[in-house]
Structures are given as structure tokens and as C-alpha cells.
Amino acid sequence: MSDAKQFDVVVIGAGPGGYIAAIRAAQLGFKVACIDEWANAKGGPAPGGTCTNVGCIPSKALLQSSEHYEHAGHAFAEHGIDFAGLSLNLPQMLKRKETVVKQNNDGILFLFKKNKITFFHGRGAFTGAAEGGYQISVTGANADTLSAKHVVIATGSNARELPGAPFDEKLILSNSGALTISSVPSTLGVIGAGVIGLEMGSVWRRLGAKVTVLEGLPTFLGAVDEQIAKEAHKLFTKQGLEINLGVKISKVTAGENSVTVDYANAAGEAQSAVFDKLIISIGRVPNTIGLGADAVGLKLDERGFIAVDDDCKTNLPNVWAVGDVVRGPMLAHKAEEEGVAVAERIAGQHGHTNFNTIPWVIYTSPEIAWVGQNEQQLKAAGVAYKAGTFPFMANGRARALGDTSGMVKFLADATTDEILGVHIVGPMASELISEAVVAMEFRASAEDIARICHAHPSLSEATKEAALAVDKRSLNF
């Protein structure tokens, strides 16, 4: 035990929650180590977790590339740009994606070095108590034994398998396999119409696949404001995504070169579909396997998440957990905010994460983004509210871009006018939502946004106009 390398803070996991927690702790003067086992194709370290390696970053790279391809094939002619002999170079597209991923991996390693964080490439696990803290083993490339007063667990999550249909990443794909398909499938099935399913389905539809989405819930995007979800459903269907709701999967059978899915449709009728590839995106499960929770008595909740309080404290003194492995939305930016907050709490400060103002984004085309409560939630809670909407078809910049689909929607308290939620489907929704997040953090009213000068022409004018529409005084619609 005396041979263990001693640190003030050891972070297990270098995804968005982990590496950010490590950096903030180092900034606050602690001696910090971070352990992560993710490896690249050559076996070298690849910090960044699911987000950087097989999630947010590579999916956005492919979404961007596939959108360029679709625009070149269908939209550029309207702009007076003609292509002859347009072709898809999928290996180059995948190579670019891997380059983007590596740039992010290398960026995190640079940040560790810059902040004097000791990085261990391997799997971290509790082995027991140590003097004044905990002992942690590292197995893998940088095998070692560490001790720390504080431990931050940021081990993330894994894709949930459909019973009877284990991932082989060749025919039955998780988010990881969906990012590495080597040739465009003629037919692609997607089980689950959530964020990952819609984004990956969108990528391969744009590149030429016939995509069928099978969703078990009777409503489309149930967490999204109903009006926004209906608009998105209409737009996605028009693009060519076949979306089936209320489906019950009975059997998935992998053949030699195809996958057969037997299911009942919303009417209870038996159906069977054969796909070249099948993506399963039915949620994610916390990653605690091999963490050594039993060695120290770390408590997990009934769903397998690490049990924490509002401050991300576990049942063990000086052991914290953040990100996908704890309660709350499985979002990279939520994990980052928790990582910062925990590092500051370790330093005796008052770190804070406001779940009510965490933005959500689906990077389809058009994008969907929202923050705060939706109309269904306000109705269920009996909150009196006012709503205002503004369509992008009435926005000058959207017309110039050639992308006028969707709208911005504001929900405000009927008495105080405080903004309760903002919902967007349309171009650059992921960027536009930030104004709403800032406004809600400062408890702004719809009138506040309506009175702020927005640049013209800009997409952000649609935000101002939707705020004006709350009081039924939109100027351009």
C-alpha cells in the first residue's frame, strides 16, 4: 500500500464529465490523476469517452458530411451550382470522421499535460481503503496502484442491447457500429426513434439507404414539445424516413448478410421486414462493470446507476460520481457541468448544476433543440402559460439559406411572463437555443427577449419574433 502513487483526486473515466472534472480540480490546486482505458485502432490512448470516440463527435462529423452530400445532389442546383458526375467516397468520409475524433483525443491529452494531470491508460477499479482515502488499481497499458483522498467516478454508459439480439457490430449495430458501416446499405432498419436512432438514420438516408424506423412508443419524440415533434415528424417523413410508431418487436434474426425483424404494428398486425443492417438504439445503461464497487461498499440504485445526492456525493465519504453513470439526462454537457461542480465542492466551493436549464439537441436536419418545460408538462402541472411561435419561412436569413423549415416556440408564465421553455425545430437550432438558456438562467421574461435588438438578417430574429408572439405582436408574420 505504501508503494501506491498518491494523489489528492483520482478521476476514473476521461469522458466529458471525467476529463473536465480532472482539469477543474487541477486548476484549483489539487494533485490529480485520471484513468481511462479507451484505445484507438493502434492501441494508444483515446480519452474523451463515448462522446468523443463513438458518440457526439463522430456522429456530428458524419451528419455534416452527409448533409454536404445531400445538398450537392439536391439543393445546390437552386443556388446555380451544378454538379456533373457526383459520387460518394465513403472511405474518405469515414477517414475524415476518424481524423476529427483523433484531433479531439489529442486535444484532451494536451490539456492533461498543460494542467499537470497524470494520465493512466488502463482500467481503474477500487481495491479497498487506503490511509486517508481509497486504493485504486490500474490494469492495462499503464498498470499501477494509486491512492487518493477523493475519487470522482465518471465511467459513463453503454448501449442497451435488445433481448435476443446481441450486438455483433456487423449486422446488428449499436451507435458504435452505426458509425463504421463500410458501404451504404440498400435497406437499414432502426429500432428506436430517439436521438441516436434519428441521427444515424438521417446519416445513412442522406447517403442513399432506405431507412425504416421502428419505435415502441405510440408517440413520436415524447420528450419534445408536441407541436414541435409533430412538425419534425412531418419533415422527416417528407425527407424519406419511414417512421412506424407503437411497434412491438417479437424477434430479431441475423442471417448471413441480412437481419429479419418480426414485429406487430400499432394495429396489432404481424409484420416482418428484412434489412441489410439493423441499428438498435433503445437507450443506454450505466457502466459500472469492473469498477470494484463491492470492494468498498459503493451503493448502486435499483437501475444500476451509482446512487448520489443532489451534490453528486455517493454513500462513501469523498467519493463522487458524475455523468451518465448517475441519475439525470445522459448528455455530455450535463456531465461537464457536474464535473466542474464536483471539483469545486471538493475545494470547499459551492459548485452548482441547474437541471432546469440544460439544453437538449437532436442534430438531424432540421435540428431540434429545447430547454425548460414543454406544453404537455405545463398542462399536466396546471401552470397557466402563454405561447408564441414564429416560422422560419417568414425569416429573411432562412430564405437566403434555402432552409425555411420549422419554427421557434416560446412558453411563458401567464402572470409574470417568465420564460418557462423554448422549443426550436429548424436550421441551426443547436446554436439558437443558447440564447434561451442564458435568458432562463437570468429568469428573463419573454418581453426581455422581445425588447432586445437582434441582428438583421439573422436566424436569431426568429427567436425575437417568437418572444413577441407571446404577446401576439409578432412583426413579420
Automatic annotation (TrEMBL):
The active site is at H456. It is found in: Cytoplasm. Disulfide bonds join C51-C56. FAD binds at K60, G124, T155, G156, S157, D324, M330, L331, A332, H333. InterPro entries: Class-I_Pyr_Nuc-Dis_Oxidored, FAD/NAD-bd_sf, FAD/NAD-binding_dom, FAD/NAD-linked_Rdtase_dimer_sf, Lipoamide_DH, Pyr_nuc-diS_OxRdtase, Pyr_nucl-diS_OxRdtase_dimer. Residues 358-467 form the Pyridine nucleotide-disulphide oxidoreductase dimerisation domain. It catalyses: N(6)-[(R)-dihydrolipoyl]-L-lysyl-[protein] + NAD(+) = N(6)-[(R)-lipoyl]-L-lysyl-[protein] + NADH + H(+). GO terms for cellular component: cytoplasm. The keyword Flavoprotein applies. It comes from the Bacteria. Residues 7-339 form the FAD/NAD(P)-binding domain. GO terms for molecular function: dihydrolipoyl dehydrogenase (NADH) activity; flavin adenine dinucleotide binding. Keywords: Cytoplasm, FAD, Flavoprotein, NAD, Nucleotide-binding, Oxidoreductase, Redox-active center. The active site is a redox-active disulfide bond. Belongs to the class-I pyridine nucleotide-disulfide oxidoreductase family. This is Dihydrolipoyl dehydrogenase. The gene is lpdA.
